[in-house]
Structure formats: C-alpha cells, structure tokens
Amino acid sequence: MEPINLFDFERLAQKRLPDMTLGYYQSGARDELTLRSNREAYERVALHYRVLVDVSRRDTRTTVLGTPIALPVLVAPTAFHRLAHPDGELATARAAGRAGTIMILSTLSTTDMEAVVAAATGPVWFQLYVYKDREATRSLVQRAEAAGCEALVLTVDAPILGTRERVVRNRFHLPPGLSVRNLSGAGLDEVREAKLDSGLAAYVAERLDPSLTWADLDWLASITRLPLVVKGIVRPDDAVRAVAHGARGVVVSNHGGRQLDTAPATLDVLPAITEAVAGEAELFLDGGIRRGTDVIKALALGARAVLVGRPILWGLAVDGADGAAEIIDLLRREIDEAMALCGCPTVAAITPDLVGR
Amino acid sequence: MEPINLFDFERLAQKRLPDMTLGYYQSGARDELTLRSNREAYERVALHYRVLVDVSRRDTRTTVLGTPIALPVLVAPTAFHRLAHPDGELATARAAGRAGTIMILSTLSTTDMEAVVAAATGPVWFQLYVYKDREATRSLVQRAEAAGCEALVLTVDAPILGTRERVVRNRFHLPPGLSVRNLSGAGLDEVREAKLDSGLAAYVAERLDPSLTWADLDWLASITRLPLVVKGIVRPDDAVRAVAHGARGVVVSNHGGRQLDTAPATLDVLPAITEAVAGEAELFLDGGIRRGTDVIKALALGARAVLVGRPILWGLAVDGADGAAEIIDLLRREIDEAMALCGCPTVAAITPDLVGR
Amino acid sequence: MEPINLFDFERLAQKRLPDMTLGYYQSGARDELTLRSNREAYERVALHYRVLVDVSRRDTRTTVLGTPIALPVLVAPTAFHRLAHPDGELATARAAGRAGTIMILSTLSTTDMEAVVAAATGPVWFQLYVYKDREATRSLVQRAEAAGCEALVLTVDAPILGTRERVVRNRFHLPPGLSVRNLSGAGLDEVREAKLDSGLAAYVAERLDPSLTWADLDWLASITRLPLVVKGIVRPDDAVRAVAHGARGVVVSNHGGRQLDTAPATLDVLPAITEAVAGEAELFLDGGIRRGTDVIKALALGARAVLVGRPILWGLAVDGADGAAEIIDLLRREIDEAMALCGCPTVAAITPDLVGR
Amino acid sequence: MEPINLFDFERLAQKRLPDMTLGYYQSGARDELTLRSNREAYERVALHYRVLVDVSRRDTRTTVLGTPIALPVLVAPTAFHRLAHPDGELATARAAGRAGTIMILSTLSTTDMEAVVAAATGPVWFQLYVYKDREATRSLVQRAEAAGCEALVLTVDAPILGTRERVVRNRFHLPPGLSVRNLSGAGLDEVREAKLDSGLAAYVAERLDPSLTWADLDWLASITRLPLVVKGIVRPDDAVRAVAHGARGVVVSNHGGRQLDTAPATLDVLPAITEAVAGEAELFLDGGIRRGTDVIKALALGARAVLVGRPILWGLAVDGADGAAEIIDLLRREIDEAMALCGCPTVAAITPDLVGR
Q1: Alpha-carbon torsion angle A128, A132, A138, A143, nearest 10
Q2: Residue of B326, B290, B319, B322 whose CA lies nearest to B306
Q3: By the 8 A CB rule, do C47 and C293 touch?
Q4: d(CA C98, CA C96)
Q5: pTM of the complete model
Q6: β-strand partners of A67
Q7: Which end of chain A lies in a sparser environment, N or C, as judged by fewer CB atoms within 10 Å?
Q8: Minimal Cβ distance to D213: which of C5, C53, C293
C-alpha cells in the first residue's frame, strides 16, 4: 500500500514499531476520552466553502512570530525521536527544513540540541520543561539561544505526567543507548524502568518542577532574549494571563490528550480564546490534526498555525526524514486542495465565516 | 430479489459493476464525512403530516424554469454513463423522457451531446465545466444550444477535483473505447491512467479552469440565450451573488460529498439559502436523496425540485434505460405515497410547516 | 425462560409465529425510522421522582371518556388477531376485560364485532376505517352501536397504506379461512395475495376512502350517538381541528411507525398538542410503549391514557387470552412500581414536573 | 494483570464471584438506562484545567459534617458484603479506616453493626431503612448511636425495591449462613428465595415502610442526637424540603440506577440542587464514580464529597480489606493527579469554572 494520507502512515508505522514505542506514541491519558474528542471536534465543524473565487494560484505560506513558513503547520515538540527511527531528531530537523517549516525541538530529545540545530535547514524552536534544578534549566535556555533556536516554547500543562495506562502496563522506559541527551551534562538524562509505572512518569515526578507559576514566566523572560510561547492552555483567562506575562504566542493544547483526561477538545475552546486574546498574541493549536481541512478550521477559528505531533513520528517510523517530510507535504497538498475548494487563494482568506453563520 | 427501493438497486449494482467503476460512483471525498452527512440530514428532519385532507387525487407534477415535469426530481449530471451500461447516456435520456422529467447531461459524457439530445424524448439541460481553453468552452455552449438543450447548469464547486481516496487507490481512468466525447473535437477527451492519482483528477487539473469568477458567469450569460443555473452552492451569500449575476436557478449541492469533505449537508444549509434568495431564483438540491420523504423535506424547506445522481447509475447498471426509468418511477411512487400521507394533494401544498413547528 | 417483561414476550412470540405474520406485526414503514424513534423518545426523557411521599397504597385507576379503567392503558386497535392465535379477537376481548381495561376493536378484525362484544367482559370501543362504500361504513357504525361499543375511534392517518417493505417482500395476505369478518356482508372481506405488493395495501387502496376530510367527521357525528375519538394526529393544529369538529378524544399516534416513515415520535409532539388542546378533549398516545415508566412519561406530558398494540399480539401468540392479559398485568405492575418510586400514589399525582425542570 | 484502575478491579471480580452475587452487584433497574447514564454524565463534562499554579504540594483532605477525611470520597452503603468476601463488612471497615475515610454501613449488613464499628479504625455512619416495625427501627437507631456511629443516612428512594431484572431471573437470595444481622433480634433477618422474584424485593415489600413521609424525618430527628443525612434525592425541591426538615446533608443519588429506571443521572441534576440548597446543607453524590476526574467534576458542581459503592465490592472480592483499601487509594491517587493537572492544590480550589464557561 502506497500511503496517501496520514492515517495510512499510522497503519504502516504500527506494523514497524515495537509495542512499547507504539504504546508510548499512540496513547492518551486514562480512558483516552480527550484523545478521541480532539479528533472528533474537527468532524463536528462544517466548512461553508465559497465558490467562483479565482483559485488558480494558491499560496499556503504564512508567518509565525515574523518567521515565514511554507504552510501553517509546525512540527510539534515530541519526545524521543530515536525510538521511531535511528536518525531521530536529526531526521525530523531535515524534514521540517525541506518542507519549509519550523521544528519545535523537545527538551526530551534523544539527540543533543546543538546537533539538531546544526543539521537543520530551517528554523528551530526549543520546547522547554523547567527542571527543579534551575541551573540546569538556565543552561538549557542558554544553550538553545547559543545554538540558534529562535523561540522558546514553555510547556505548562505537565506539572506532573498524566497517566497513560497503556504506558504504565508497558512499563515504558528508554532502551540502552537512548537518553535525554540535552540533560546528560546535568546527569538528568536517564529514563529507567520504574516499578509498576511508566519510567517517564517517574522521571518527570523526580526532576521537573511542579511548583511553576506565572512568576516563573517572568523569570524566564528575564534570562532570554528569545520570544516566549506558552503551550498547553485551554482557558481564555490563562491565555490572557500568558499575554500579560509577556508571551508572544499561545499554543491551545491539551498535550495531545496525554495529560488530563476529559480536558476539552482544543478546537472547541479555541474560539473563546481567540476572542479573549484579541490579536495580542499569536495563537497556535495542536491535537488531532490529520487533514488539510482540520487546519483550515483551526485557522478560521483564530489559530495562526497548527502543530502536528504524532504523524511526524509515523513518518519517521516509515521512512526517516523522507517519511516525516512526506507527512508535512501531504498536509500541504491537502491544505492547498482545501483552500482551492473553499475559495481561499491565500491563508489570509481563511476567515471565520467558513465555519458557520 | 426484486428491488423495491433505491437501496436495493445499489446492492444489485454492486454485484455487477467492476471495482474501479463502483469506487468511482460510490466514493466521496477524503473521509466521506459529507457523503454520510448528506444522507443523515434527512433522517434528522421529521415530517409533521396533516390529516383529513382529501388526497384521493395526488398530483406530483411541477415546473422548473417554466418546464413542466412529472415529479419534482431531475436527473443530476453525472459522468461516464457508459461505465454503468453500454447504452450509457442514451439510456439515461430515454429513461428521463419516459419518466417525464429532465436529464441534465454532464460535460463529461461518454456520448456526444447531439446524440443524447436526439435520443431524448424529454428536455435536456447541459451541465457545463469551463475549460482553460475558452474556445472549447464556447463551442460546448453553442453545440448545447444548437442541439436543443434548454438550460445550462454551471458547476462551480470544482475548480479542482476533490480527492476521492478510493478512486486514487484504484487509479481510476477510462477504459479503451470510452472518452469525454463532447471534447473529442478539441482533443480534450482522454482520461488516462495517472501516476499515483485518479486519472480524472489529472484531467481536471490540466484542463478545467480554476480561475473562474463571478465575472465569468456574466461572460457565459453574454454568449448564450439559455437560462443559467449555478450548481454547487452551500452559502446564502453565494446564492445571492448567483442571482445578482443572472442565474435563474441555484443548485444547493456539495457535489454529492465528492469535492470538499466536511462541507455541510445540503439539507442543513437549504433553509438559510431559501430565506436569502427569497424567491428570486428557483432552488434545487442534491446529495443523498433516496426516499420520497427526502424530496418532500427538500421542497418543504424551499427547493423547487431535487436532483438524483448515483441511483440513476445503479438503475443503468441493473437494467439500462429500464432500470434508470424504474429508479425515477420508484421515487415518483414514493413521493406520491408521502404526499398522500402528509395530506398534500399537490406539490404546492408541501409547505414549511411540515418540517417543524 | 419465564417472561418477565414485554420484550421477553416479543422474543417468545418470534419463535412461534410464521415469518409472514411476524413481518406484518413487527414492521414499520420504509426504513423504520419512526418505528425506532417512537421507542427512543421514552429513553430521552428522565423521570425526576419525588421522595418521602406515602406510597403505601397506590391506585392505578383512572377514567377515559367517563369510563373507569383499572390502569391508564387501553388495548390499541390492531388487525387480524387470529393470525396470532386461533382465538383471535375473542381472546383479546376476554384479556382486556379481565385486566380491567377497554379493548379498541379494529375494523380489520378476523372475528365479527358482535361476537367480540358478546365475549367481552369489559367495554369495547370500535376503531373505524371509512370505506369508499359509504353504506358499508354506515352499517359498520350502526352495528358497532347496536353491539354495544361505547365509542368510535376514527383512524385518520391511513388515507392509503404506508409501505412496510418487509410486508411487501413477504407478499402479505390473509391465509384461507381468515378474512375481514366485519365486511363480509358487504363483500369487502378478502385480503388476497397481490402482485409485488402487500395484499393489505391493495385492499386499502381499493376499498378505503382517501378523500376523507374534516367534513366527514361531522357526517360521522351526525350518524351516531357514540363519542368520537380521532386517532393518528401529530400536529397541534390538527388536534384543535378535531376538537372543533366534535372529537371527545384525540389519539396522538403515527400508527406505530407503520404509515409515514420519519413522522415524529409521538412522545415528542405530545407536549405541544397538550398545550393546544388545553383540556378540551382527552388525549391518548400510542407507539412504542413497553415499560411502566413510558406510561408515566406520557401521562406527565398530558396524555390521559396510552394504547398498547403489538405487545398484546405477542401475548396472544404466546398464550392466547392468558398471554394478552399477562401483558396488561405486567404493565400494571410496572406502572404501580414506577408510581411508588416516583412518589405518585395516584394517577392524578403524575404531573409535568416529573419530566423536567 | 496487575489492576491499575477501578475497571480492572471489576474485571477481576467478575472472574471470582458467582453469577448470583455478580448479578446482584452489577445490575441496575429494568433496562439499566440510568445505570449507564450515571456513568456517561461524567464523560459529557469537560475539565477546563488551569495552568501555572504551584501544585508541588497537593492536599486531598476535606471535612464532611465537620469530620476530617483524607479524600472527598466516602464508602457508600451497600448490602451484604460477606457475599463479596468472607470478612465482609469488617474488611470494609478496616479498609475505610486505613484509607482515612468514613464507611457508611448499610442496614442490610451481613455483620452486626456493633462488630463493624468495633473493628473500624475510622468513623462509621449508619445507613437506615425504616421498617414497618417502628420499634425495630428505633432499636436500630439507638444501637447505631450506642455503637458510636457518627451520623444517620436515611435512604428515601426505596419505598419499594426497584426491579433489577437480572436479579429476578437469578432468584437472588442470601445463601445459608448469611442474613441481615442487624435485624436478627427483631426476627427480620432472613432473605429467602422468592417465587419468580428477587428474594430481596420480597423482603423489602414485606418489611420496609413505604408510607414514609417528611414527618418521619422529624420523628427520626426527635429520637436521635446524630446528624441526619437524606440519601436518594434528585430534585431541588426535595433537597430544600430535606434541609427544612433538619437534614444536615443530602446525597444526590438514584441508588446507583437500581431503583427507578430512567431517573436522571446524578451529575446532571447536581447543579440545580446546589443552587437550591445554597450552602444550607452539605451535598454528596453517588452513582458511577470510577475516576479521579469524576470526583473533581462532582465537587466543581457543588458536592462536598462523593460516595463509592460497587468498586468497594470489587476490591473486597479481589482481595478483602486490602482490595477495598486499594480501591480508595487508587481513587486518592487519581484525585491527586487530577488536582495537579487542574491546577488545584487543595479541595477548596476545585471551583465551578473548571466545568465550563
């Protein structure tokens, strides 16, 4: 089977990946209701397309925080790419660059950030977890700046790790040879097998800082010149607070349904957040994006761009950098098709009237 | 099994048609959500029937653009009838005439339009795709007029072809001996196997004009004396624009769920369009009509008549012209029954109060 | 299996009845959407029960048109009881009397009405179809009066017979020895096998009068001293008209989902009809009643009593008069239990607040 | 399989318990619609979590009627624990104490209340059924006081026993050696096999008092110094009445879907009751709690704590006191996790904004 959509890639990846990896990538928290709901939210929204607009030339390009990208899709930060493919984050960086978009590199990378940025042919943003060890955290920020990352994306929905039961049953841990490379200097790089639990949950509980508050966002702003993006928000009041504390961007996200089960679907909360933020920051959205029309809906409801996570991993698993690039390119072609069929020659033409009265 | 409803015909046709043809006819775009939603929309609307009305004589007749028809159902334009039956569009024309209604002949006919109109015993309307080659387009219009077609139906929801994934996997193309006959003079008649794609998608991308705008509707009006109907509208503002640019009729349609997946169900958007157009043009609707009660609902919500596409093809596949005629006649009998049970002796009695408080 | 609810009886009856009979009894019109919807409507309504009411003595008795009955459930008129059991309508009459309620005898009885009334130990109402042959109709009315029927129930939702496709495929007809006994004097008693159709549909088309109007209700009132009940109404305006033309009762009914498919569920339209009729006639409801709580909901929404059709036939099939009586008694015990648990010691205590805010 | 959530425990218990016991514990009334609806109500409510709150220290403690408990979960009163495990109610009492919460002991205990309270290491409340034999009832109250129970929980939704059909088919009864120990002095302790019915339904019909009214709540208050909690309310007006008659607490409950089928889901009616009671009594809720997030939702909508019934029985069945304690501890860990992920370091921080705009 030649894969022709993102679901095909998942099916192919399912045949190639070991159970522990697959369980880690696919699972959501607890009963996986938010995981499912993220996806179903797109199916409940109809696209009221326009006709007789000249769509002979479509332009999927846009900018995020001033950076031009080829399509309104970024590579979401996800952990441990070398579980999916030996080339790991290097492959992802190459794929993102080739596809003309930004890779958001996870703190929990299985490759050093410097190597990833060096291999990248496009912009890299750095996703940050704040460690209890604040010096280790400061070091991460300084290295990201030095390496040339162009923004910091602070994850705020994971003071502890949400329980993904499939992962607990699998006793997920990193196999020998893989580790959280960015923290190896600080001695915080091993994700070992835990007793009756996910090794990652133990890692997070032990090392990440659950006491983080809005004041820490100010601290972070004080130690970096990079623009800050806050990721993991589902409430208008939190989005407003993020902006007040200096965030240039907000990612409406529930961590792909992996943290708090029964958190609302991201698309469902986007409109109220769009209204609350009122253009004072750029909004992004992730969770369940699988189709070009999903992207159109997110943009019509106020997102500047979306982030795609798991599908990149399926692409990696199937064919390394080529597979990951094909995922982005498939989305680009689907977005292009949807723009043509919606009567939107440009991203700017994707307006709220497309999704309802 | 003697077929007693339209679903029976589909089941019978499924046994007779080759996979490539079946895939082409049955499929919708992408995840086929609109395909399903078109149909489900009828199931969500209840008919609040009237009692103790004299329905001893029911009259299913009406007119569309002044032309009398035996029932408020037209044959929708669909492509390539000779895939369904060797008699192809000739059989359909005979069936429509016998059943007392209008056939809308597709540009993508496997038979020359002149032959179809010659074989027809009832009115024929011509569905028009605008080619990049405008002289070829003008020629189509002139030939349609000369042949005796009584209206032009301009399809506006297909600036490019929506991806029907089943068709892509099938590498759909026309077998030897079949071609887009109406374009053979212009050398635009072949639908060849494409690499990793539907041959038809390639044909459309290469040859049809995605730059079409409302101005082209004016151009079209300027080169023909035939009344214009615009097909493929799901928004009230577009319907109003169509009327402003001279359309005498508007077909509320999402191309049978084959173009933009997650476009709204046609029945769901009909009421707002009815209100917007306010009687200044005749409204038609297609997509998922399978029961007499579906027709009643469309009329109660403002449609003058409906178009039926795929079921005609099932009729052709099962029994050529006889099968196609039986499809229309089955619908006529179901409409007649529904009118009797709704307390509507005439089409004019099918009023909005039937579908809700 | 000892049957402990009405569904059990249906399962048992299914094993005993021939396919043609079962198809006739179980089927609904067309896609059976109304059949299903009638039932689902009860599941969508919650009962907000009251506590700490003295329910040590419950009284399920009420009156309908002044006649006392042991529970707010009547036997709905259904055709051809001898298909279910050799004792046919005689068994039903005995069961209704034993259970303390009214039997509504169908025109399409397989037993002469005089014999049924003679066998009955409780009140009998006569359900009337108006024949094209008005003298035959007048004779039915006069015989019903003479036999001692206490009300006439005019069915108004069947100007023609709705198509039940299972019945058409079965070519339903009455076997030798069974006929519409009440019409044997008029020579209108045979329900023969029809070509490609239900024999009953042919019978109805040929013999019943689809020209009936409200004026005929006046005519009917003029030829009888019996109170009139109009059965088959789903619209408030029709209910008001019925009252204006002298109806003492209105049965909110869609003929058990057997006439117009996609007619609304009866429970769904009851509240608006209750409001429109405003106590000027007694309201009844049928369609899908299987549980004591269904009856409570109908009463809370304005019905005086409900009619139960198919389950009586399952009772007959399983055990003749005893089975039919057990059906009513099962319902009585379920109503009694539901009244206790709702804090309603009497039928009068079943008020609208039970079904919502 | 190591059980990691409450559903796992149910699956394990299912393998160990005999059918009659399992049927008794699992079943709901009639079609079990309320049983299912109780659970589904939690799935329809989304948790709009807060971010960047310091949740490094979470505190799941609260108080109910002034009594401190380790988490906002009480052990619901359920009957016949020795059916689940030989240690029966003694094991439950030990488990509740170990987990830091209150056990509500059922009147229908298979162990004498004095023995249960003696074995308990935490507070015990006594659930009361009022017997027709009022002296037996008075004796229960006096013994509960004397034994040291700290509150009385009067069940008001069971004037008769709702029919659980699975239980009727099983002819549920207590096996030799087990009885309603608290009533052995009054000779009311045997739950014998009944003819064609649940033995418990017969027991209840014969012995419990269906004539109970609000006046009896006054009587009860007059004979005890213990605080009264009324259990089984789904209506705001009844909750207000309970408070007016001296109840210090109200349990919003439909008896786990075991009494009136189609009673509303408890979570659905909680908000209106919260509003009506306006802080004048403490509100509790039971029915379908299986996840920590369920507890958060109940608290956000106004409950002070929830009661958990069936899962305790699964815990007992799997591993006696240890299993039951593990059930509570699993819930505590899930509540702790949900509080962290919701940005709620304390129970007081669980406010209505978490469940909607």
Answers
A1: -50
A2: B290
A3: yes
A4: 5
A5: 0.97
A6: A64
A7: N
A8: C53
Which residue matches tokens 């019915």?
D197
Query: How many angstroms separate the CA of residue D238 from the nearest CA in chain C?
Result: 7
Residue with tokens 């067309």: C30
Rg (CA), chain C: 19
Which residues of D are part of the catalytic machinery? 255
Nearest CA in chain D to C339: D260
Nearest CA in chain D to A130: D52
pLDDT in tens, D268-284: 999 999 999 999 999 99
Exposure string over C273-292, b if 16+ CB within 10 A, otherwise e: bbebbeeebbbbbbbbbbbb
Distance from CA of A304 to the nearest CA of B (A): 21
User: Could you give the 3-state DSSP secondary structure of residue A228?
Assistant: strand
Residue range C311-327, pLDDT digits in tens: 999 999 999 999 999 99
Which pair of structure tokens corresponds to residue D302?
């106004």
Q: Which residues of B touch A46 (CB under 8 A)?
A: 37, 262-265, 268
Beta strand C67-69 with C62-64 is antiparallel
Measured CA to CA in angstroms, residue A48 lies from A300, B35, B234, C108 at distances of 11, 15, 6, 52
A261 chain-D contacts, CB cut-off 8 A? 291, 293
Say if the Cβ atoms of C156 and B357 lie within 8 Å. Answer: no
- Output Rg (C-alpha) for chain B, integer angstroms: 19
List CB contacts (< 8 A) between B47 and chain C: 260, 262-264
- The CA distance from B335 to B347, in Å, is 10
| Residues in chain C within 8 Å Cβ distance of B48 | 234-235, 263-264, 269
Task: For residue D1, give the DSSP letter.
Answer: -
Q: Long-range contacts made by residues C21-25, C-beta under 8 angstroms, separation at least 24?
A: C21/C83, C21/C84, C23/C164, C23/C166, C23/C167, C23/C169, C23/C170, C23/C172, C24/C80, C24/C83, C24/C164, C24/C167, C24/C170, C24/C172, C24/C200, C25/C78, C25/C83, C25/C84, C25/C310, C25/C313
Among D232, D261, D269, select the one facing C51 at the smallest CB separation. Answer: D232
Amino acid at C343: G
Nearest by CB to D338, which of A196, A216, A260?
Answer: A260
d(CA D51, CA D357): 16
Residue B94 carries which side chain, given as an amino acid letter? R
pLDDT digits (tens, 9 = 90+) for D297-354: 999 999 999 999 999 999 999 999 999 999 999 999 999 999 999 999 999 999 999 9
Active site residue C81: no
User: Which pLDDT belongs to residue B357?
Assistant: 46
